[in-house]
UniProtKB/TrEMBL annotation:
The organism of origin for this protein: Marinobacter algicola DG893
Cofactors named for this entry: Zn(2+); Mg(2+); Co(2+)
Name of this chain's protein: 4-hydroxythreonine-4-phosphate dehydrogenase
Entry's localization field: Cytoplasm
Sites where the protein binds a divalent metal cation: 165, 210, 265
């Protein structure tokens, strides 16, 4: 019999909305057991500020995690310098990264079945003198994997990216046969493993307008993308494309697809965020662990007001639970 899923939830930037999203979550009925990896005094302070009655219960590995409304299991992390909502403090940066390390290592050690992350503030961490480009890269290094893939998803649409945070002028050179091969294999493998899809159907966007229009609007499709997709199809991966991005995101194509592979960040994500902002989830593929996250930032202006919407966090937890359950059925190699 499959054991109940336990997910680690990191509360993110202490000055942002992450802590109160965790507290909001505690007030609702939820499926999996959740362990918040954060400073317990921080959660207590934010609960007092918002007038929320939440019982914060100390949690230790091996214990069950509560899913009951009004209660929250907490794995408390020391090192927090300040707890003021809306005011960034670089002195909190090492603490923030420690919460991520503890949650990720817990997943690697089998203590947790997956991790869900509330938003961090990359700028303040770098201002503290710590080189940090984001959750994804931090977890990639900690888990020791060569390549990870960013995928955002709603209940209706999944969009993965070949390249992520690059200036547009650098995208073409970054789309190599090697990168496209690695990303596509990871996407296909993880759709099978974490989403239970036996034969994922993937739509691939071209890079150029009209997918290059036979070379008249660019040769990346002819020289790199098409030959690479042909090789991957011979491996048994179901790929359609490269397709013009301006018509790919229409029911004609999407109704018969499980995911879209976009060539760059602003090719695929504006469509997805327009379709489901506030209820989308950011998923890191290619890791030996389950990791999902919210689709928004720290929202410092909303911190401490009680106006933050936990919809995206609830989606991230729901998707994380599904992925972890699927991984339990099909253990990660």
């Amino acid at each position: 019999m499959t054991q109940p899923v336990i997910l680690a939830l990191t509360a993110g930037e202490p000055a942002g909305i992450g802590p109160e999203l965790c507290l909001q979550l505690a007030l609702k009925k939820r499926g999996p057991g959740i362990v918040v990896v954060a400073s317990k005094p921080l959660l207590e302070a934010r609960a007092r500020l918002l007038g929320l009655e939440v019982a914060l219960e100390d949690w230790a590995p091996g214990a069950p995690a509560t899913a009951e409304p009004g209660r929250l299991s907490v794995l408390s992390v020391d090192g927090l310098a300040s707890t003021t909502a809306g005011h960034l403090d670089p002195a909190n940066s090492a603490y923030v990264l420690e919460t991520l390390r503890i949650a990720a290592q817990g997943c690697l050690d089998g203590i947790f079945d997956g991790m869900v992350t509330a938003p961090v503030h990359k700028g303040v961490i770098n201002n503290a003198g710590i080189a940090f480009s984001g959750h994804t890269e931090f977890l990639q290094e900690l888990c020791g994997v060569e390549r990870v893939v960013m995928m955002l998803a709603t209940d209706e649409l999944r969009v993965a990216l070949v390249t992520t945070h690059l200036p547009l002028k650098d995208v073409s050179a970054a789309i190599t046969a090697e990168r496209l091969t690695q990303v596509t294999r990871i996407l296909d493998n993880d759709l099978r493993k974490f989403f239970g899809l036996q034969h994922p159907r993937i739509l691939v966007a071209g890079l150029n307008p009209h997918a290059g229009e036979g070379g008249h609007l660019g040769r990346e499709e002819i020289d790199v993308i098409e030959p690479t997709l042909a090789t991957l199809r011979r491996e048994g991966i179901d790929l359609t494309g490269p397709l013009p991005a301006d018509t790919l995101f229409t029911p004609h194509w999407l109704d018969n697809a499980d995911a879209v592979l976009a060539m760059y960040h602003d090719q695929g994500l504006p469509v997805l965020k327009f379709q489901g902002f506030g209820r989308a989830v950011n998923i890191t593929l290619g890791l030996p662990i389950v990791r999902t996250s919210v689709d928004h930032g720290t929202a410092l202006d909303l911190a401490g007001t009680g106006k933050a919407d936990a919809g995206s966090l609830e989606t991230a937890i729901r998707v994380g639970e599904r992925m972890a359950t699927s991984a339990k059925r099909d253990p990660i190699e």
